[in-house]
Design a protein that fits this description.
single chain; about 240 residues; alpha/beta; Spore Coat Polysaccharide Biosynthesis Protein SpsA, Chain A; 8-stranded mixed β-sheet; two-stranded antiparallel ribbon; about 30% helix; binds cytidine-5'-monophosphate; nucleotidyltransferase; EC 2.7.7.60; 2-C-methyl-D-erythritol 4-phosphate cytidylyltransferase; ISPD_synthase_CS
Length: about 240
């Protein structure tokens, strides 16, 4: 079964501060998106990468992919994204050729995920899981709060879920093609990951171990950490 990776990269990255769309910010002199594409193409199982670009940035993304050396065995497609991550993923799926039976969805904002994590996700789908997420235990205790009634108002704590049962999930998330397409056709509420749509269909989602280096680059401090990881890899 052939495997493709869809990379939603159409977000503005507002939390990272002012500047270019997040996926196009440099890490070690190379755009974050290029790291993410290389991380998917590093898996020998991945033969197509579909990049979902900012709608006004498809030409720029195409020329970036042309400019950076990527493995020859991997094909690339660039499509324009949408208003939400979910819409961007769906637009990427619309471009998926029929011969791909396994689909990874990977955030451009997780540029440093190791290939072993990518391969573990693919392997679990090959073994029959309709949906697979890499996940890690939490370091922090998590509280559920009642959102503030107005800015500046307090947020009372509602509950403290048992931390031992919580996991922070990462990407790439892996799917049986038909399951992911059905999930995107059926679930219309706003979600923050693809696996939750599969959960809403009532299908099982399997967890495999995530990796510290698959963290999401969201805030300025994450850029500092990502640069440090790259430097350590180059030593
Ligand atoms: O905003 P967040 O960090 O959750 O975004 C996760 C990923 O989804 C990023 O790679 C971002 O570029 C992508 N995204 C997208 N289209 C949007 C919003 C986010 O492709 N409209």
């Amino acid at each position: 079964v052939r495997t493709a990776a869809v990379i939603p990269a159409a977000g503005r990255g507002v939390r990272l501060g002012p500047g270019a769309p997040k996926a196009l910010r440099a890490l070690g002199g190379v755009p974050m998106l290029i790291h993410a594409v290389r991380a998917m193409a590093a898996s020998r199982a991945v033969s197509l990468v579909i990049v979902v670009a900012p709608p006004d940035g498809t030409a720029e993304v195409k020329s970036l992919l042309d400019a950076h050396a990527l493995p020859e065995r991997t094909d690339f497609l660039v499509v324009p994204g949408g208003e939400t991550r979910q819409e961007s993923v769906r637009l990427g799926l619309d471009a998926l050729p029929p011969e791909y039976g396994i689909v990874l969805v990977h955030d451009a904002a997780r540029p440093l995920v190791p290939v072993d994590t990518v391969d573990a996700v693919i392997e679990a789908v090959r073994e029959g899981a309709p949906a697979v997420v890499p996940a890690l235990p939490l370091a922090d205790t998590v509280k559920e709060v009642q959102p503030a009634a107005a800015p500046g108002e307090p947020e009372p704590v509602v509950a403290t879920p048992d931390r031992a049962r919580l996991r922070a999930v990462q990407t790439p998330q892996g799917f049986d093609r038909a399951t992911l397409i059905q999930a995107h056709e059926t679930v219309t509420d706003n979600v923050t990951d693809d696996a939750s749509m599969v959960e809403q269909l009532g299908l099982p989602v399997v967890v495999v171990p995530g990796h510290e280096e698959a963290f999401k680059v969201t805030r300025p401090l994450d850029l500092v950490l990502a640069e440090a990881v790259l430097t350590r890899r180059r030593l």
